[in-house]
Specification:
By secondary structure, the protein is α/β, with parallel strands linked by helices. It folds into three domains: 2-310, 3-Layer(aba) Sandwich (Aminopeptidase), CATH 3.40.630.10; 315-395, Immunoglobulin-like; 411-489, Sandwich (Immunoglobulin-like), CATH 2.60.40. Helix content is 21%, strand content 28%. The chain is built from nine helices and 23 strands. The strands form five sheets. Strands 1, 2, 3, 4, 5, 6, 7, 8 and 9 form a nine-stranded mixed β-sheet that branches. Strands 10, 12, 15 and 16 form a four-stranded mixed β-sheet that branches. A four-stranded antiparallel β-sheet has the order 20-19-22-23, with no helix packed on it. Helix 3 (80-95) packs across helix 9 (290-310) and helix 7 crosses helix 9 (290-310). The N and C termini lie far apart (88 Å). Bound molecules: zinc ion. The site of zinc ion has 5 residues, from loops.
């Protein structure tokens, strides 16, 4: 009888883990062309699946698009964040093809949700066993039973970043950080997803039982100072905050730098992965009555959706490739003055050589480094408000044999820059079988098989349309050689 009374202590508006499993699976079926459901791990004790849902067009492909992650339910009793994720999933999907912004985001972003990161801990709350349970169910004393007074790990203290500085070393403590960093399956699931997807932005949803509420924490402030990207993190956090109305209906959320370094998701995702990560303490306490849930979710959407816009407003993006093969390179991108040498390098991704650096209006110096390659430096890169500055570069291998000495380039183009016609002259010794022209985004503009020694490119694509002003790359491929040459097309009248 007591069990039954407990069962009804949590409002049925809140999802149980079983309801989430069922709902997310039917969503993935209903929207199979724009979603993929992934099980990224199983909970530490009960082996409950941890689901990740990806929303994007061509969802099975890793496209050259920025990735953004939303996580709910690190802390078992903070169940509002789970509801926000589920609400956002269904809002985005039902708006696809209806609302132009949602359609654009789904077509041009990879949007990931882990609505319930701690399913076994949430079960402790949802069954009413302990409605203020925070941790997972790790059997700390190895007695084969779940002890509310001794078991569990605080999953938001188990990440491998200043792990010993945060939480508590004592198993019974609510903030127990675990026997070692990444000891918990749940944390390793997030780690592996983050390493694979290389998120530009992340929100991790919480709801505080005590302490400050309706706040957004971003990385970081501690006795040693502020995080390297602090000015940019702060402006993004402020912009999220001013879009989320408080439950009272008066005023908006507040953004604050997270105090101290410890092994939480926010610090690890930013510190190790370079992901701009925001911890939002939603609402005014953890357990709100069911009738409030939809309102809290709705008020949070503009803050969450802001990131889907911001990811291409104000910053530098581009690809980095090998100058002779045009293969994507993982290279370190350093923005001078906003660089912390104690952190792992911020690198372009493996599949596309793509990088994103979120900045704000200003002028920056960017350095690009990769062992074995000649380092690059770009001064005076201007970032204008609400725009991404493109910086696509190729890196030259040190001592590479395929590089011709200056003045003896094996593909010559003239004039360069040009406003229309480009004379392309190819060294016959190259014996090229094809000549391809790529735009700065890496898209093929034109392909010429068995090119003549001397030919004219009229600045048009395969369909004879004029190409836009910009930088283009010629890639010549022969039996034993690959050569590249840059050509700049400038369309403005009066340029000459
Ligand atoms: Zn929390």
């Amino acid at each position: 009888m007591i069990w039954l009374i407990f069962l009804f202590s949590i409002d049925p508006r809140y999802h149980t883990a079983e309801e989430i499993a069922y709902e997310i699976d039917s969503i993935a079926n209903d929207y199979s062309t724009i979603t993929v459901l992934d099980t990224i791990g199983y909970s530490t004790v009960d082996s409950l699946p941890i689901f990740a849902l990806k929303i994007s067009d061509n969802p099975l492909l890793d496209e050259d698009e920025p990735s953004i992650l939303y996580i709910g339910g690190h802390h078992a009793e903070e169940i509002l964040g789970i509801e926000i994720c589920m609400y956002m999933i269904s809002d985005l999907l039902t708006q696809y093809g209806v609302d132009s912004a949602a359609t654009y985001w789904i077509d041009n972003r990879e949007i990931w949700f882990v609505p319930l990161m701690n399913p076994e801990g949430q079960g402790v709350v949802m069954t009413g066993l302990d409605t203020i349970w925070r941790k997972n169910k790790r059997d700390n004393n190895n007695n084969g039973f779940f002890d509310l007074t001794y078991d569990g790990v605080d999953l938001n203290r188990n990440y491998d970043f200043y792990w010993t500085e945060g939480g508590s070393p004592d198993p019974p403590d609510e903030f127990y950080r675990g026997p070692y960093s990444f000891s918990e399956n749940e944390n390793r699931a997030i780690r592996d997803l983050a390493f694979r997807e290389e998120f530009t932005f992340c929100i991790t949803y919480h709801s505080a039982r005590y302490g400050l509420t309706e706040v957004i924490y971003y990385p970081w402030h501690w006795s040693g100072g502020y995080s390297a990207d602090y000015p940019f993190l702060r402006t993004v956090a402020d912009s999220i905050a001013k879009r989320i109305l408080r439950d009272s209906g008066v005023g908006y959320y507040t953004a604050l730098p997270g105090e101290g370094l410890e092994g939480n998701a926010r610090n690890w995702l930013y510190g190790v992965c370079g992901t701009f990560t925001f911890c939002i303490e939603v609402s005014t306490t953890t357990l709100q009555p069911g009738w409030m849930v939809d309102g809290i979710c709705q008020r949070n959407l503009p803050g969450a959706y802001y990131l889907l816009e911001r990811v291409e407003q104000g910053g530098i993006t581009g690809w980095i490739r090998d100058s002779s093969t045009l293969q994507p390179l993982t290279a370190e991108v350093i923005v001078q003055g906003y660089y912390d040498p104690t952190l792992p390098p911020r690198r372009s991704n493996a599949n596309y050589g793509r990088f994103y650096r979120i900045l704000k209006t200003g002028t920056y110096t960017v350095e690009i480094h990769k062992p074995g390659y000649v380092p690059l430096r770009y001064d005076s890169i201007i970032v204008a408000n609400e725009q991404m500055t493109e910086l696509n570069v190729t890196m030259r291998r040190m001592g590479g044999e395929t590089i011709a000495p200056a003045g003896q380039k094996k593909i010559r183009v003239s004039p360069n820059p040009t406003n229309a016609n480009v004379l392309i002259q190819i060294d016959p010794a190259l014996n090229l079988s094809s000549l391809s022209i790529y735009d700065i985004g890496g898209r093929l503009v034109k392909n010429i098989q068995n090119p003549a020694r001397s030919l004219l490119w009229r600045g048009t694509d395969e369909k004879n349309r004029n190409v836009a002003t910009g930088v283009y790359w010629l890639l010549g491929q022969g039996e034993n050689s690959t050569v590249t040459q840059k050509v700049v097309i400038v369309r403005e009248l009066g340029f000459w």
